[in-house]
TrEMBL record:
Family: Belongs to the THEM6 family.
Protein name: Protein THEM6
Keywords: Membrane, Transmembrane, Transmembrane helix
Domain of life: Eukaryota
PANTHER family registered for this protein in UniProt: PROTEIN THEM6, PTHR12475
Amino acid sequence: MEEVPPEREMWWVLWVLAILLALFCIVDVWYFLRAAAVILRAWFQPPVWDITAEQVLTGRVTPHDIDMCHMNNARYLRECDFARFSLYMRNGVFKAVRALKASMVVGATTIRYRRALCIGEGYELRSRIVTWDDKAFFLEQRFVSTKDGLVCAVMYCKQSVIRGSPDKILQHLCKRKVECPEFPEDLQHWVNFISASSQALRAESGLEEKNK
């Protein structure tokens, strides 16, 4: 068997390193690796049949998450992404979305920071679907410190459904019409704000006049 010259092996190593470097510079590789790991883990966990049931992921603040020794504000939103992936995998929403050839995007989020999560501090990320309308699911996600049980941050997320609706997704999952829970008062205030903001921006861009 012909041996590969050492110079050729070195060139292959350099090419691989160059490709990996370019990939890490262009794409957020760690995000996609983490997302794949979360989805794979949820795949092997027991399904959750209650669509509004709270699901919990645990985490700990690492040096990669921090600025000024506490969790960076953008990291909260990133962790919420992964928690929603797990939520939708286990309650079947992802499967229903694929079956209906629909898709989902984040339409809006709002987050309130109550106390910083410091480096090394453990937390639970509790996610649940609160309610829905004809276009979107509305979720609540809470960061709860395992040290003292304090809710350190709480986020609302509007998960818009494209080429479908929450009702169609739930009917596909449950094989029946599912009653929509009432909107909590604070969530309703936020939804009203979104609607008012959308109308103002449409008027500012002239879309309201064009649609008349």
